[in-house]
C-alpha cells in the first residue's frame, strides 16, 4: 500500500491522502484584495486535482500586509462574503478540504507583481505604501526603510490576524495556516538579522518568537474549539557565519507551537535575506522537515522540489516527513495526484465525471468520491 495515499489527520481534520497543495501567490486579486475569476478557475482546478488538502495563497490580514497590490486580503467582510460564495461553488465540484494561509508581508510588502519586476513601490507612487517590520532594517539596501512597529501597532496586527481567522471560519475554510516563513513579518521578528529590537519582542530567542506565538494563540482563541490551525515556517535563513534563524531555532519554535496545539508544521526555508545561500536541488528542504519531525509529536509537511511520485513516497518511507507539499509541480501538472496514484498503483478519489479517463489496465485506480 502506498504511504502517500494513506489518510492523515491534521487535528480534527482528516485528509484522504498525504498530498498537500502548498500556498502559491497568484497576484491576481483586485487592488482591494478581492477574488477574481482567476481564483474561481484556480480553486476549481485545485479541487479537482485529487490532493488531500489545498491551502489557498497568502492572504493579508491588513491592506499594508499584502506583498503586492494584487494580493488577496481578508481584512473586511466583503472579502469574506466573496470567498464564501466562491467556496460554495468549488464545493459543488469536490469535497476536498480547503484551507487558507493568513499572512502579513511586513518589510517585503508594497512590491510590483513578479512579472513586473517585483521591485518595491514607493509610498508616494500608485499601488505603494509604507512598509512595517520589527525594526527599520530594509530588505534591499535600495528599499525605503520599514517603519519599526510600536507595541500598540503589534497588538493591532495580532488582533487583525484573529479577526481574519473569524472571517476565514465563517467563509467556510476547513483549516487556517499561519504564514511565519519566507522573510515575511513573523519571520522578520524571529530572525536576529531583521529584528534589532531591545524590548519584549527583541533580543532573546523567547522574545523574538513572542509575536508568532501571540498570533497563533490569538487565532486559536478566535476560532471554534478543535478548529485546526497549522503553521508554515522557514527552517533556516541559509546564512552561515552570522547569527541568524536556523534549524535549531525552528526546532525550539516547533516545540512551543506543538504545546500550543498546532496541528502541523509546514517546513520551508529562506526568504529573509538577499544574501541567502540556498543549495537548491531535489529534496533540498526535506532534511529540515526530518529534523523537526524528530523533535515534535505533530505532523510535519515537507516541501521543495518534490516532483515525482516515487520521490514523495520515499520521503514518507524514510520517515522524513508525514505529508508532502506540492507547489510548482502541481501548477505545471494539475493532475499530479492522479499520475502519482497510477505510478504507485494506488487508489484515488476523483469526480465521477472523470472516471472514464482512467488508463486501461488500472481497474482499481480511480474511485468516485
UniProtKB/TrEMBL annotation:
Superkingdom of source: Bacteria
Keyword flag S-adenosyl-L-methionine: no
Molecular-function GO term, any one: NADP binding
Name of the protein in its database record: NADH:flavin oxidoreductase/NADH oxidase
The protein's required cofactors: FMN
Keyword Oxidoreductase: yes
Record domain NADH:flavin oxidoreductase/NADH oxidase N-terminal: where: 4-342
Keywords for the protein's UniProt record, in alphabetical order: Flavoprotein, FMN, NADP, Oxidoreductase
Amino acid at each position: 500500500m502506498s504511504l502517500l495515499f494513506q489518510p492523515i489527520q491534521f487535528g480534527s481534520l482528516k485528509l484522504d491522502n498525504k498530498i498537500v497543495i502548498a500556498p502559491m501567490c497568484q497576484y491576481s486579486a483586485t487592488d482591494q484584495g478581492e477574488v477574481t475569476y482567476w481564483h474561481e478557475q484556480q480553486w476549481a482546478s485545485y479541487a479537482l486535482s485529487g490532493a488531500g488538502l489545498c491551502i489557498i495563497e497568502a492572504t493579508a490580514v491588513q491592506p499594508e500586509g499584502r506583498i503586492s497590490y494584487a494580493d488577496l486580503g481578508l481584512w473586511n467582510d466583503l472579502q469574506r462574503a466573496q470567498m464564501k460564495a466562491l467556496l460554495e461553488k468549488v464545493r459543488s465540484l469536490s469535497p476536498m478540504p480547503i484551507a487558507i494561509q493568513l499572512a502579513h508581508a511586513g518589510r517585503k510588502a508594497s512590491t510590483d507583481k513578479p512579472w513586473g519586476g517585483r521591485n518595491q513601490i514607493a509610498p508616494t507612487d500608485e499601488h505603494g505604501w509604507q512598509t512595517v517590520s520589527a525594526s527599520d532594517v530594509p530588505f534591499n539596501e535600495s528599499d525605503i526603510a520599514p517603519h519599526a512597529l510600536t507595541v500598540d501597532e503589534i497588538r493591532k496586527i495580532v488582533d487583525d490576524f484573529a479577526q481574519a481567522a473569524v472571517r476565514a471560519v465563517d467563509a467556510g475554510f476547513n483549516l487556517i495556516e499561519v504564514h511565519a516563513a519566507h522573510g515575511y513579518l513573523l519571520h522578520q521578528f524571529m530572525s536576529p538579522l531583521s529584528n534589532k529590537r531591545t524590548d519584549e519582542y527583541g533580543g532573546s530567542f523567547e522574545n523574538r518568537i513572542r509575536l508568532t506565538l501571540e498570533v497563533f494563540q490569538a487565532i486559536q482563541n478566535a476560532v471554534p474549539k478543535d478548529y485546526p490551525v497549522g503553521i508554515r515556517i522557514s527552517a533556516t535563513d541559509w546564512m552561515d557565519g552570522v547569527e541568524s534563524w536556523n534549524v535549531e531555532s525552528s526546532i525550539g519554535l516547533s516545540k512551543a507551537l506543538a504545546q500550543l496545539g498546532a496541528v502541523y508544521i509546514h517546513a520551508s526555508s529562506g526568504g529573509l535575506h538577499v544574501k541567502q545561500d540556498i543549495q537548491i536541488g531535489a529534496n533540498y528542504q526535506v532534511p529540515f522537515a526530518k529534523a523537526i519531525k524528530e523533535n515534535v509529536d505533530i505532523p510535519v509537511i515537507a516541501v521543495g522540489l518534490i516532483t515525482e511520485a516515487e520521490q514523495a513516497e520515499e520521503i514518507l518511507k524514510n520517515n522524513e516527513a508525514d505529508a508532502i507539499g506540492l507547489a510548482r509541480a502541481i501548477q505545471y501538472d494539475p493532475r499530479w495526484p492522479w499520475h502519482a496514484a497510477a505510478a504507485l498503483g494506488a487508489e484515488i478519489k476523483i469526480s465521477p465525471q472523470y472516471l472514464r479517463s482512467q488508463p486501461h489496465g488500472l481497474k482499481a485506480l480511480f474511485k468516485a468520491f
